[in-house]
């Protein structure tokens, strides 16, 4: 009975821990470093989650239409080591983002740098393009 309990616990541990590792992706699988983006917009939402932090921008197109961009950064821990904190990016901030567009052509991108319009401060977005 005791051996069966250990087997069940081991199986449950494997199943519960497999999700996060499957969810993680290589940069090149999702983003195209040959399709750079540079966009300016207003921050509408910031999500400090693992394995990557995300923020969302409303970007005005040439015809005046607002388009939402979803922008992926590195992990919260990696960003903190690079000078970020939870208050570095706030809803309503106007920022310019340099990075790479998603391969699927959607308004999704990987952030290389974020420059705050109010201060001119530029922060590294934490995406490792080597993978």
In short:
With 131 residues, the protein is an alpha+beta fold.
Index terms:
single chain; 131 residues; 5-stranded mixed barrel
Structure description:
- It is a single chain.
- With 131 residues, the protein is of the alpha+beta class.
- It is built from three helices and six strands; from the N terminus they run H-H-E-E-E-H-E-E-E.
- It has helices at residues 2-23, 27-30, 76-81, and strands spanning 31-47, 54-60, 66-72, 94-102, 108-116, 122-124.
- A five-stranded mixed barrel has the order 1-2-3-5-4.
- Strand 4 (94-102) and strand 5 form a beta hairpin.
- The longest helix is centred in the N-terminal third of the chain and has 22 residues, at 2-23.
- It is globular and about 70 Å long.
- 20% of the residues are buried.
- Mean pLDDT is 80; it is low at 10-24.
């Amino acid at each position: 009975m005791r051996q069966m309990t250990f087997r069940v616990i081991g199986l449950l541990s494997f199943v519960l821990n497999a999700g996060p590792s499957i969810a993680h992706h290589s940069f090149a699988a999702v983003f195209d470093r040959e399709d750079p983006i540079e966009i300016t917009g207003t921050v509408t939402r910031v999500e400090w989650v693992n394995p990557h932090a995300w923020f969302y921008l409303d970007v005005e197109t040439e015809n005046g239409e607002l388009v939402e961009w979803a922008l992926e950064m590195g992990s919260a821990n990696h960003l903190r080591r690079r000078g970020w904190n939870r208050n570095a990016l706030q809803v309503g901030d106007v920022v310019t983002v340099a990075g790479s567009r998603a391969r699927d052509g959607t308004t999704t991108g990987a952030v290389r740098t974020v420059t705050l319009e109010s201060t001119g401060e530029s922060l590294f977005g934490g995406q490792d393009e080597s993978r």
